[in-house]
């Protein structure tokens, strides 16, 4: 049983396309994080959300607490956006523990 | 300033041997997480340290795994009697906790291969 499900698992887009990655979760959460893992393996935290919407450059993250769903959008995608995007939730019940999705592998073609 | 460092970057060990993995977090970050990422799998929570509080060890997969954080800074993850299923990338995340905000900064990881 996966507490966090992401879709799609793999995504290929043409440069400039608008991209959406979805995350659904089944546990009560105190926060949701979006992470980016580059081909070399390094992981960067993109957003932490507990409600609403956040924007950073071409990246937008939204969360709907009632529906237990979050989306990560990338506008005007670029080949350098190619990476694995991981959704992680911090459990409300266990406090410190994070549950992770298996990631969405994005490839942006020039 | 310096980011999170982990050592070694790669470790190959024989089944049954003990290994020790090190994490140097960002100075001033009171919280530290260890995670494991097995091939083709998502990240898996292992253990959490916050200040002087007792660590949350609920993610450790067996009693062969243990971790320490000395002086609220450097942390070591020890795996005793390694098994092939322990092969994975072990990541630590130095975490700045402020209210409900958790800013995580990941280290580059240690790739462990048990032969």
Q: What structural keywords apply?
A:
heterodimer; A: 110 residues; mainly beta; six-stranded mixed sheet; five-stranded antiparallel sheet; 0% helix; globular; B: 115 residues; four-stranded antiparallel sheet; 52% strand
Outline of the structure:
The complex is a heterodimer of chains A (110) and B (115). Chain A has 110 residues and is an all-beta fold.
Question: Describe it for me?
Answer:
- The complex is a heterodimer of chains A (110) and B (115).
- Chain A contains no helices and 11 strands.
- Helix content of chain A is 0%, strand content 61%.
- Chain A is mostly beta strands.
- Chain B is mainly beta and 115 residues long.
- Chain B has no helices and 10 strands.
- Chain B has strands at residues 5-7, 10-13, 19-24, 31-37, 43-50, 65-69, 75-79, 88-98, 101-106, 110-114.
- In chain B, a hairpin with a 5-residue loop joins strand 6 and strand 7 (75-79).
- The model of chain B has no long low-confidence stretch (mean pLDDT 92).
- Chain A binds chain B through residues 4, 30-31, 33, 35, 41-45, 48, 50, 86, 88, 90, 94-103, and chain B through 33, 35, 41-45, 48, 50, 56, 58-59, 89, 91, 93, 100-106, 108-109.
